[in-house]
């Protein structure tokens, strides 16, 4: 079912059917802060009032034109100005998908997306906002890490995401566990072939622990992004054992998932960053959230049929 759903994430026909149905709205709003920046600002105000910090994602991916890629950059520039005007930049972060900045455009997609990302990172830095590059499917990992290297030459705080489901990730963790390196560790949200990824969830979880150990024992800044409470517990044990200070790592969770746990961890003194997506292009993000938990699909289908 997970693979079928993740395939649906790339179907234009399904996208049209799902996004045009008003019945989907209440379910989508569990995972997405809203259609516009006003809604995003309202959400991050609530989170900061509860002692949480945030990373904002202007939803969008798989851009097919240079104009669309530039519009994505502009949306982020607008976001940074708004956060500054609202006095919300302290500890703020933005998450960016390079495919939204044109990474897959024919011929010069990597050059275009790296250039736009560099403009975006410069503007974020001017406004005191951090940036992390989201990681998409395995075919994009090399290009994304190359862009990361280019961006870090100017702004070393740019973060990246590594996915424990990929065989290559332990080696990537070793390469990137260097001083100051901000690395978000996730399990991975994309359908991947067995040639590059662990097909069994138990192996993905075991790989997560191995990667976590490399990052926590390394010199960088690990961002432990999971709702798996067993892994959260293991992370806490590892940081205690290695004597890491509370400000040398953080937990991250998605908006709408395990909100009580987010608050509990923050109350215990941990830095907890909530990933807050906003915008109208929510379809791909939403389908990946459905695919993560079969119960979500039932809930979604029931909401469609009970109206
Ligand atoms: P799971 O084993 O999937 O879930 C553990 C428990 O969490 C479940 O039992 C359930 O109780 C709860 N849970 C998990 N997902 C859901 C859900 N959708 N709905 C309701 N409950 C749920 N992936 C990428 O590939 N690239 C990225 O750049 C990326 N960025 C991310 C950023 C953050 C801050 C987070 C938290 C995740 C990100 N992900 C990214 C997604 C990640 O790869 C996983 O798909 C997702 O986090 C689910 O895995 P899990 O670690 O929570 O473990």
Automatic annotation (TrEMBL):
Binding site for FAD: 135, 163, 187-189, 201, 226-227
Pathway membership: Amino-acid degradation; L-proline degradation into L-glutamate; L-glutamate from L-proline: step 1/2
Lineage: superkingdom: Bacteria
Biological process per Gene Ontology, one example term: L-proline catabolic process to L-glutamate
Keyword field: FAD, Flavoprotein, Nucleotide-binding, Oxidoreductase, Proline metabolism
Reaction equation(s) it catalyzes: L-proline + a quinone = (S)-1-pyrroline-5-carboxylate + a quinol + H(+)
Sites where the protein binds substrate: 97, 288-289
Note on cofactor: Binds 1 FAD per subunit.
Residue ranges occupied by any Proline dehydrogenase domain in the UniProt entry: 41-299
GO molecular function: nucleotide binding; proline dehydrogenase activity
Entry EC number(s): 1.5.5.2
InterPro entries xref list: FAD-linked_oxidoreductase-like, PRODH_bac_arc, Proline_DH_dom, Proline_oxidase
UniProt cofactor(s): FAD
Name of the molecule in the record: proline dehydrogenase
């Amino acid at each position: 079912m997970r693979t079928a759903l993740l395939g649906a994430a790339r179907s234009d026909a399904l996208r049209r059917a799902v996004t045009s149905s008003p019945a989907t709205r209440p379910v989508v709003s569990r995972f997405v802060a809203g259609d516009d920046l006003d809604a995003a600002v309202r959400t991050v105000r609530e989170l900061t009032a509860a002692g949480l910090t945030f990373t904002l994602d202007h939803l969008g991916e798989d851009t097919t034109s240079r104009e669309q890629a530039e519009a994505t950059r502009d949306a982020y520039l607008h976001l940074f100005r708004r956060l500054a005007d609202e006095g919300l930049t302290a500890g703020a972060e933005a998450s960016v998908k390079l495919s939204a900045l044109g990474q897959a455009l024919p011929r010069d997609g990597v050059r275009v997306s790296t250039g736009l990302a560099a403009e975006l990172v410069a503007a974020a830095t001017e406004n005191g906002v951090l940036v992390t590059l989201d990681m998409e499917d395995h075919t994009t990992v090399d290009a994304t890490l190359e862009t990361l290297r280019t961006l870090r030459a100017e702004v070393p705080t740019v973060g990246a995401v590594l996915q424990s489901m990929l065989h290559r990730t332990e080696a990537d963790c070793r390469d990137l566990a260097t001083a100051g390196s901000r690395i978000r560790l996730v399990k991975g949200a994309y359908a991947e072939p067995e040639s590059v990824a662990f097909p069994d969830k138990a192996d993905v979880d075991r790989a997560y622990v191995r990667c976590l150990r490399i990052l926590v024992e390394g010199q960088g800044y690990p961002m432990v992004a999971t709702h798996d409470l067993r892994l959260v517990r293991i992370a806490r044990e590892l940081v205690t054992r290695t004597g890491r200070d509370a400000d040398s790592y953080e937990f991250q969770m998605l908006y709408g998932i395990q909100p009580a746990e987010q608050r509990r961890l923050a109350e215990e003194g941990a830095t907890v960053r909530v990933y807050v997506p906003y915008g109208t292009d929510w379809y791909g993000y939403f389908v990946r959230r459905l695919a993560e938990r079969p119960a979500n699909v039932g809930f979604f289908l029931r909401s469609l049929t009970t109206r």
